[in-house]
Amino acid sequence: xxxxxxxxxxxxxxxxxxxxxxxxxxxxAMAIVETLPQFIxxxxxxxxYSLPDELSTIAFIERWAGRxxxxxxxxxxxxxxxxxxxxEKLHTGAFNIEEPDGSDxxxxxxxxxxxxxxxxxxxxxxxxxxxxxYYDRLLRRTNALKVGVAYQCQICEDFTPDEFDIxxxxxxxxxxxxxxx
Length: 181
Hints:
Blueprint (H helix, E strand, L loop, with lengths): L2 H13 L3 H17 L1 H5 L2 E4 L10 H7 L4 E8 L2 E6 L5 E3 L5 E3 L12 E4 L3 E2 L5 E2 L5 H6 L5 E6 L19 E4 L2 E4 L2
Parallel strand pairs: 1-2, 1-6, 6-9, 9-10
Antiparallel strand pairs: 2-3, 4-5, 7-8, 10-11
């Protein structure tokens, strides 16, 4: 299967998940993230603000805001800017994603751990995003630990990444750690 076919297949499978299954899966996957020694040690964590079809990060963000310095990405042309998370300073931005307001950009190099979304992952940490390359460009700018989170149904057979694709270091689903360091 090529990336376009994988995106289509995963989208169809995710549509079958009930709201309860989605919530339980997000709770289990993010609980595993919270046990990672690298997460426990990290002070600066970039996390995505989930769309309805993605593994939810919203409860995770609410739980850790104020306990760790959390950051969210904001689309800026072809790139992602990084800004500190503040629940009072969000707006619906590009692609209907909640994005942070403000002008205090934070360098990607400050991030110690990045929680990365994807449409699909393989067991080697390769990811298929939505096709715009935003996260690949961002991940290229940092040495942070890259943690992919997903529903188990988003794990695919190994596929050949494109030359510009940046893999994640760890992949976690509601069923456990799929790929570790």
